[in-house]
Amino acid sequence: MKKIIKTSKAPNPIGPYNQAVLTGNMLYTSGQIAINPATNELEIENLEDETTLVMENLKAILTEAGMTFENVVKTSIFISDMNNFARINAIYGKYFDPETAPARETVEVANLPKFVNVEISAIGVK
Fold this sequence. Notes:
Elements: E1 2-5, E2 20-23, E3 26-29, E4 35-36, E5 41-42, H1 47-64, E6 72-79, H2 85-93, E7 103-108, E8 118-125
Parallel strand pairs: 6-7
Antiparallel strand pairs: 1-2, 2-3, 3-8, 4-5, 6-8
């Protein structure tokens, strides 16, 4: 049985999907981009701020599901330019304890929704 996770503290989906799905003790988040949930506007002028907003959107979804970043076992990071890897990684790393950080992959892609610079999804376990 699956439970849909939805919070007003993260952006509404821009397509036919949900913010996250909880099935059993597993949480699967949709990829998050830098849409400010309060304004429904993109915030992509500064890469560090953009990445922070992406991580805060993920945090809001995790919180709604009764989890934290400590519950995350896997992330997927999609970036539009691998030259931005270090800057994105510096912000991403602030949200995880290096000793218990999740597995992940980082992939450069040709384009992302709304032509953002970074999109991140996560899988969590209670």
